[in-house]
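Q: How would the structure tokens look for this protein?
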Amino acid sequence: MVVTPALREISRGSLWRKIEREHELVIVDALSPISFAASHLPGAINMPPERVDDLAERRIPDHDAEVVVYCAKPDCVSSVEVATRLIELGYRNVHHY
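A: Here is the predicted structure in token form.
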């Protein structure tokens, strides 16, 4: 049995400070490509849950990169699914917003 570490949360204020300071991080939008095309955070990459295994290595080659995964609203589960899968794939610095 594989145990996944607890998913770490990042607050709006902490994320905003990192963006303002141009802190090096990867922002992942976990919504569908259509939703991503309509609206997303500046600099975000799109990675819906069903594509994580296909896209993660190409879009986030550094497993130590700071990654923040977000979705449309607080009760959206896509961001939790993507963040959890990234951790399972060996990414070590994943946060959920």
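The longest strand covers residues 26-29.

The mean pLDDT is 91.

Upvote if useful.
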